[in-house]
Amino acid sequence: MSLLIYENFRSRSGKCRLRGMLRLGKMSRAVSLSAAIASKLIIEGKIKAKGVQRPTLPEFYQPVLKEMGEFGYHFVHNRIKL
């Protein structure tokens, strides 16, 4: 179980930071942060989908990944032919 207190602020360098984050593993932090960002976007009305949704819709994952990039997370999609 992980807990994330999500309070976004910018440091003097202009980089996004989290305040109040508990010590979490990298995977727990990424999962918690993405859930917190998605919740914030729903509350702000930036995600319009209703009901239970999978996060495979571009409406969900594109703004979440963009905001996670501000926190230093970068994702690369690679395909490897087997």
Write structural notes for this entry.
This protein has 82 residues and is mostly helical. Strands 1-2 form a two-stranded antiparallel ribbon. The protein has helices at 26-43, 58-69; strands at 8-10, 16-18.
Topology, element by element:
Layout: E1 8-10, E2 16-18, H1 26-43, H2 58-69
Antiparallel strand pairs: 1-2
Helix pairs in contact: 1-2
Strand order of the largest sheet: 1-2
User: What is the general shape?
Assistant: globular
Class per helix and strand makeup: mainly alpha
Q: Treating each run of at least 4 consecutive H or I residues as one helix, how many helices? A: 2
Alpha-carbon Rg, integer: 14 Å
Q: Compute the number of strand runs.
A: 2
Unreliably modeled segments: 1-6
Largest sheet: 2 strands, antiparallel
Termini separation (Å)? 36 Å
The residue fraction in helices comes out at 25-40%
Mean pLDDT: 76
Write out key terms for the chains shown.
two-stranded antiparallel ribbon, mainly alpha, 82 residues, 2 strands, disordered N terminus
Quick synopsis:
With 82 residues, this protein is mainly alpha-helical. The protein is 37% helix and 7% strand. A two-stranded antiparallel sheet has the order 1-2.
